[in-house]
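Bumping with the actual sequence this time:
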Amino acid sequence: SQGPISGANKDIAVLQCHGDCDPLVPVMFGSLTVEKLKTMINPANVTFKTYSGMMHSSSLEEMMDVKQFIDSHLPPID
Protein backbone atom coordinates (compact mmCIF):
# COMPACT_ATOMS: atom_id res chain seq x y z
CA SER A 1 0.00 0.00 0.00
CA GLN A 2 1.22 3.49 -0.85
CA GLY A 3 1.47 6.27 1.70
CA PRO A 4 -0.57 9.47 1.49
CA ILE A 5 -0.01 11.84 -1.40
CA SER A 6 1.77 14.96 -0.18
CA GLY A 7 3.78 17.99 -1.22
CA ALA A 8 3.83 19.05 -4.85
CA ASN A 9 2.08 15.82 -5.87
CA LYS A 10 -1.11 17.09 -4.21
CA ASP A 11 -1.33 19.71 -6.97
CA ILE A 12 -0.49 17.53 -9.96
CA ALA A 13 -2.79 17.93 -12.96
CA VAL A 14 -4.52 14.77 -14.19
CA LEU A 15 -6.43 14.11 -17.40
CA GLN A 16 -8.35 10.84 -17.39
CA CYS A 17 -9.99 9.78 -20.65
CA HIS A 18 -12.52 7.02 -21.22
CA GLY A 19 -14.67 5.75 -24.07
CA ASP A 20 -18.33 5.43 -23.12
CA CYS A 21 -18.61 2.14 -25.05
CA ASP A 22 -15.51 0.42 -23.59
CA PRO A 23 -16.39 -3.30 -23.26
CA LEU A 24 -13.29 -4.14 -21.18
CA VAL A 25 -13.29 -1.32 -18.61
CA PRO A 26 -16.82 0.02 -18.15
CA VAL A 27 -17.02 3.82 -18.05
CA MET A 28 -18.55 3.51 -14.57
CA PHE A 29 -15.17 2.23 -13.32
CA GLY A 30 -13.51 5.30 -14.84
CA SER A 31 -16.01 7.51 -13.02
CA LEU A 32 -15.35 5.74 -9.72
CA THR A 33 -11.60 6.03 -10.22
CA VAL A 34 -11.74 9.76 -10.92
CA GLU A 35 -13.93 10.37 -7.86
CA LYS A 36 -11.42 8.49 -5.68
CA LEU A 37 -8.57 10.47 -7.25
CA LYS A 38 -10.35 13.72 -6.40
CA THR A 39 -10.23 12.74 -2.71
CA MET A 40 -6.47 12.20 -2.93
CA ILE A 41 -5.30 15.30 -4.83
CA ASN A 42 -6.66 18.78 -5.52
CA PRO A 43 -9.99 17.99 -7.24
CA ALA A 44 -9.81 21.22 -9.25
CA ASN A 45 -6.83 19.73 -11.11
CA VAL A 46 -8.60 16.51 -12.14
CA THR A 47 -10.30 16.36 -15.55
CA PHE A 48 -12.38 13.37 -16.67
CA LYS A 49 -13.33 13.27 -20.35
CA THR A 50 -15.54 10.69 -21.99
CA TYR A 51 -15.76 10.01 -25.70
CA SER A 52 -19.05 9.05 -27.29
CA GLY A 53 -18.98 5.71 -29.08
CA MET A 54 -15.31 5.03 -28.27
CA MET A 55 -14.50 1.49 -27.21
CA HIS A 56 -11.29 0.21 -25.52
CA SER A 57 -9.22 2.25 -27.93
CA SER A 58 -8.25 5.80 -28.79
CA SER A 59 -9.53 8.45 -31.13
CA LEU A 60 -8.25 11.56 -32.87
CA GLU A 61 -10.44 13.70 -30.57
CA GLU A 62 -8.88 12.07 -27.50
CA MET A 63 -5.33 12.51 -28.83
CA MET A 64 -6.02 16.19 -29.54
CA ASP A 65 -7.28 16.61 -25.96
CA VAL A 66 -4.12 14.88 -24.65
CA LYS A 67 -1.95 17.19 -26.78
CA GLN A 68 -3.82 20.27 -25.50
CA PHE A 69 -3.45 19.03 -21.90
CA ILE A 70 0.31 18.50 -22.32
CA ASP A 71 0.75 21.84 -24.06
CA SER A 72 -1.08 23.64 -21.25
CA HIS A 73 0.93 22.01 -18.43
CA LEU A 74 4.46 21.64 -19.75
CA PRO A 75 6.75 24.47 -20.78
CA PRO A 76 7.57 24.66 -24.50
CA ILE A 77 10.72 22.99 -25.74
CA ASP A 78 13.22 25.43 -27.24
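The C-alpha coordinates above came from a reply further down the thread. The chain has a mean pLDDT of 93.
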